[in-house]
Amino acid sequence: MTAEESDLVLVKRVQRGDKTAFDLLVRKYQHKVVKLVLRYVRNPAEAEDIAQEAFIKAYRALPQFRGDSAFYTWMYRIAINTAKNSLASRDRSPIAYDLDLTDPEESHSVQTKLQDPDTPEGMALTEEIRGIVNSAIEGLPEELKTAIVLRELDGLSYEEIAAAMECPVGTVRSRIFRAREAIDKRLREVFEGGLGRTEEMV
Amino acid sequence: MNEERQNERDSQLSAMFDGELSVAECDLLARRLARDEALRAQWSRYSLIGAALRAERGVKLHDRVAVRVQAQISQEASYGDSTGGDSALAVRPTVAASAVGGGADRWMRFARPMFGAGIAAGVAAASILWLRSQESPEILAANPIPRTVTLAPDTTGGTVAVDAAAAIERVSNGEPERYTTPAPSNSISIAPPARLANYVVAHSEYSSPMTRRMALLGLVASDGTGLPAEDAAPAAPRSEAGSQDNAH
After folding, report:
1. How many Cβ pairs within 8 Å bridge chains A and B?
2. Which residue of B has its CA nearest to A10?
3. Which residues on A lie below 8 Å from B80 (Cβ)?
4. Mind giving me the DSSP string for chain B?
5. DSSP A201
6. How far apart are CA A33 and CA B81, in angstroms?
């Protein structure tokens, strides 16, 4: 079974009325979609808004999704179109002309929208998460580290990893799971109560 | 849940995230995920770990996008069998209800055409019995016999009813407007076939063209006017034309 087929199981569940299955798809791809949208808009908050809109569009269009392409490929196109439309509508929007740029607060607001607005806090958080994940990986036994890197960075299937590491597929599955558990445990220790929660709780 | 089972479930979750779980196991775990928020949070963290490993920009600890999307779609209608439930558990009563009602639905699907056919057969039988009862001379004498007449323009600009045969000749270059009206007649001998013909014409939309033609030819051939069958035969197309008009 491939990732596409796994996603298709969730898609079919959504089409049968299970909204939680769509939540799983959103949780799985939200980072990828936000990253994709950040190619078009530089404001992470705006990128999240666009990603949200793209997911809603996808949900509404899901009855027409027949599985001819992978769910993420389909989602990718929706996200790009939504980002482009957002840019086009922003270009047409006269809001900027209504702002008093002599007002320091409003001027700062406009600058935040037009320039790279990755806030220092947001950047620091991203860097901190990355740092913890990388240090956790460094602390893993070699076979676990290789397995998770081949999976997450190189995108190899379990079968391909098994061939590369000369071990059974079941062992690959176990190694990847144990690597994730170790990293997850480290993240939970640092960000106690903050993982997988809403922003307000972080 | 003991540690071993939990490890196996978490291992399945990791494999499902990578698309390396069988469809059946995937579906089972998806049901579990639908009612286990802690497991969904774990799923989110697997996504976060991958994003952090790939050094993706904008990686955040929170699931703001997912939370907002979930809040918005929870207000929208569900697809498929579910009636707005947020989990597989919510789907279950609907599925169970449809399973209970399934037998009745299936029975109705087959019974409905049977009812229709039964009603049609009953009406046909009643009509035939009624027509048979009309065959007695007393009743026939009391009831007028229908004849086909045609509306034709009068010289004064009005419209008069004339005999069908004459009218057809008069308006041969156009389609005459016909209707059937009861007209008194003393010719008792032709009454039953004529009534039957009217009945066939009136119900012609329910019979095939071939059946209709055969019935009408049979009626004409058995006409009791004393005319030979060859002489009566040309009347058949007229009747048929009339029946087609009526059918339309």
Report:
1. 231
2. B30
3. 15-17
4. --HHHHHHHHHHHHHHHTT-S-HHHHHHHHHHHHH-HHHHHHHHHHHHHHHHHTT-TT--SS-HHHHHHHHHHTTSPPPTT-SS-SSHHHHHHHHHHHHHHHHHHHHHHHHHHHHHHHHHHHHHHHHHHHHHHHTSHHHHHHSPEEEEEEEEE-TTS-EEEEEHHHHHHHTTTS---EEEEEE----GGGHHHHHHHHHHHHTGGGS-HHHHHHHHHHHHHT-TTS--HHHHTTHHHHHHHHHHHHH-
5. G
6. 29
pLDDT tens, position by position, A127-173: 788 888 889 999 999 999 999 999 998 999 999 999 999 999 999 99
| Amino acid identity for residue A143 in this structure | E
- Do the Cβ atoms of A16 and B79 come within 8 Å? yes
Q: What is the pTM of this model?
A: 0.53
Amino acid at A126: T
Q: How many CB atoms lie within 10 A of CB B137?
A: 9
Give CA–CA dist A148/A145, Å, rounded.
5
Nearest residue to A24 via CA among B156, B13, B143 = B13
Residue of A nearest to B90 (CA): A18
SS3 assignment, position A42: coil
Query: What six digits make up the tokens of B63?
Result: 């699931």
Is the ipTM value over 0.90, yes or no?
no
Structure tokens at B33: 């995920």
Place of tokens 């840019």: A87
